[in-house]
């Protein structure tokens, strides 16, 4: 509980290498994460080449990516299962082959996120610091090329790990009443309780100072939502464009699983 309730993103690491036994332990923890239908539909690429790290830092526009002693890119992976299915006599080019469907794409993506989170929590429980890297998706096309990602694979997130060289304060979280509901989703948020909770949360967030910009407070939560909601969804467009190139038919609606 202490590890989970004190989770923070660490963006500055000491240069101390992570011992192989520790990285092995973290990888084992990731493998113990829940996996839908026991398909184990994810893989992770450990990045050790300094030149490749630098290229990933350029994609993410975050220098600390290249400085992380331990760096992983988690990938949704139906290619391995497709190979196994083929070895078992399944025609992977037939219409009935569903590992390339949108459902299996999302299923594998969930598997990868769960595994990454397990690794992150394990690392933090050992006194290490981590930051999850959505920024590596800034250029999915280039990332696919750099990592030689084959058909039926797709990048999900990165994870940088190392001994913390900073101690950021805990970033605020919204009141539970804004995020946890009883039995059903609320009909709307147009009520006094929600409005007052949002005002309070906006004020709390605005008082928080992120170490990336230590000279100024973070924008209020409402202001952040306003900015994101009107921004061009480039990553979403890239997924829609590149997933089919990686062999996934993300429009497919397979029969409901039982």
Automatic annotation (TrEMBL):
Tree of life domain: Bacteria
Molecular function as annotated in GO: oxidoreductase activity
Keyword annotations from UniProtKB, A to Z: Flavoprotein, FMN, NADP, Oxidoreductase
Transmembrane segments: none
Pfam families registered for this protein in UniProt: Nitroreductase
Chain residue ranges for the region called Disordered: 236-258
Residue stretches making up the Nitroreductase domain: 5-163
Keyword Hydrolase carried by entry: no
Coiled-coil region list: none
The keyword Cell cycle appears for this protein: no
Family, similarity comment: Belongs to the flavin oxidoreductase frp family.
Protein name, per record: Nitroreductase family protein
């Amino acid at each position: 509980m202490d590890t989970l309730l004190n989770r923070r993103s660490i963006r500055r690491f000491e240069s101390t290498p992570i011992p192989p036994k520790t990285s092995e332990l973290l990888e084992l923890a990731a493998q113990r994460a829940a996996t839908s239908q026991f398909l184990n539909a994810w893989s992770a690429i450990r990045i050790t080449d300094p030149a490749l790290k630098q290229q990933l830092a350029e994609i993410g526009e975050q220098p600390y990516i290249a400085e992380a002693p331990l760096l992983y890119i988690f990938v949704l992976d139906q290619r391995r299962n497709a190979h196994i299915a083929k070895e078992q006599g399944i025609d992977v080019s037939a219409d009935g082959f569903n590992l390339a469907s949108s459902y299996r794409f999302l299923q594998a993506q969930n598997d990868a996120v769960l595994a990454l989170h397990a690794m992150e929590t394990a690392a933090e429980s050992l006194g290490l610091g981590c930051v999850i890297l959505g920024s590596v998706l800034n250029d999915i096309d280039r990332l696919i090329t750099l990592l030689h990602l084959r058909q039926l694979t797709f990048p999900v997130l990165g994870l940088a790990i190392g001994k913390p060289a900073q101690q950021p304060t805990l970033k605020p979280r919204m009141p539970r009443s804004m995020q946890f509901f009883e039995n059903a989703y609320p009909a709307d948020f147009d009520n006094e309780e929600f409005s007052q909770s949002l005002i309070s949360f906006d004020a709390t967030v605005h008082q928080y100072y992120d170490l990336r910009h230590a000279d100024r407070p973070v924008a209020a939560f409402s202001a952040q939502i306003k900015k994101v909601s009107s921004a061009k969804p480039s990553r979403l467009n890239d997924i829609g464009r590149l997933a089919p190139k990686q062999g996934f038919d993300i429009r497919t609606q397979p029969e409901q699983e039982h």
